[in-house]
Amino acid sequence: MDCAGRGILSVRQRRPLRLAIIALYRAEVERRGPAMPITERTPHRLVLKSGSTTLTLDKTAGKVVLQRKVLLWGLKPVEASLSEISDITIDTAVDRASGVEVCHTMLIMQGGRGWAFPAADKTEAETNAAAMRDFLGMTASRRAE
């Protein structure tokens, strides 16, 4: 016991507890399965979610809205007209520090600006791009990916 009367676990006693916590965490992750990026898909509305970023394509309103959160605060949503979208591509880059491939689905606007929608991996980025192209009635990207 320490000076406050609390029991102190020895290293031998803490190790099984730590292994039990790790086992519970693994079971929780496996139970959830892969993240589902498409949260809503109707003929008039497509909503994609990746982490704290949400992309909404709405044919009724004629708008595309990108909403992002940083920690607990939501940033101001970015809006554009659906008719402004000229191309949808996949952007892949390799992080120099870790060597991990980072992928984004890019919405290229007519003015040349682009929005990056994050993806967990290249297959998720391709799935997102295909869903957006299908929703907007676009053909595959003209750029070499």
Give a brief outline of the structure:
This protein is an alpha+beta fold. It has helices at residues 11-32, 122-136, and strands at 38-41, 45-50, 53-58, 63-70, 73-74, 78-81, 85-94, 101-109, 114-119. It has a domain at 38-136: PH-domain like, CATH 2.30.29.
Your description of this structure?
The chain is of the alpha+beta class. The protein is 26% helix and 38% strand. It contains 2 helices and 9 strands, in the order αβββββββββα. The strands form 2 sheets. Strands 1, 2, 3, 4, 5 and 6 form a 6-stranded antiparallel β-sheet that branches. Strands 7-8-9 form a 3-stranded antiparallel β-sheet, with helices on one face. Strand 1 and strand 2 (45-50) form a beta hairpin.
Q: Helix share of residues? A: 25-40%
CATH architectural group of the domain at 38-136: Roll
Helical stretch tally:
2
Strand content: 35-45%
**H/E series, N to C?**
HEEEEEEEEEH
* Low-confidence segments: 19-33
| Number of strand elements | 9
Mean pLDDT: 79
Instruction: Give the N-terminus to C-terminus distance in angstroms.
Output: 63 Å
CATH topology of the domain at 38-136: PH-domain like
Topology at a glance:
Elements: H1 11-32, E1 38-41, E2 45-50, E3 53-58, E4 63-70, E5 73-74, E6 78-81, E7 85-94, E8 101-109, E9 114-119, H2 122-136
Keywords, separated by commas or semicolons:
PH-domain like, 6-stranded antiparallel beta sheet, 2 helices, 26% helix
